[in-house]
Design brief:
By secondary structure, the chain is of the alpha+beta class. It folds into two domains: about 50 residues, Ubiquitin Ligase Nedd4, Chain: W; about 35 residues, Helicase, Ruva Protein, domain 3. The protein is built from three helices and six strands. Helix 1 crosses helix 2, helix 1 runs parallel beside helix 3 and helix 2 packs across helix 3. The longest helix has 11 residues. The N and C termini lie far apart (about 75 Å).
């Protein structure tokens, strides 16, 4: 019946599905996954037990960024790291925050 309507379904063997959002990851272990093609439009259907993991929002700081901030704002490495963490790695914002005279 589905083939007559132009719908094709293919099961996909998957051991885990991860959906990443800005705030968290949705993880489905041992999912049932099906790829459905309906008149040229492909979709995935995923079912299973969903669990959520919060994401670590601490930005990865490069040593070059830390050194640049230390030189530009004339601050210690510890202060530069904290400023970059607070600004989520935005060097320009960190420099402005550390050198603001007001």
């Amino acid at each position: 019946m589905m083939k007559k309507m132009g719908v094709a379904q293919q099961d996909i063997e998957a051991t885990r599905v991860i959906i990443e959002t800005p705030e968290k990851n949705l993880i489905i272990d041992e999912p049932q996954v099906a790829k459905v093609n309906m008149m040229g439009q492909e979709t995935l259907q995923v079912s299973g037990q969903i669990r959520e993991e919060e994401k670590d929002t601490t930005p990865e700081l490069s040593e070059d960024d830390i050194k640049t901030l230390m030189e530009q704002a004339n601050v210690s490495e510890e202060i530069a790291r904290k400023a970059l963490e607070l600004t989520k790695g935005d060097i320009a914002e960190a420099i402005m925050g550390l050198t603001d005279d007001s």
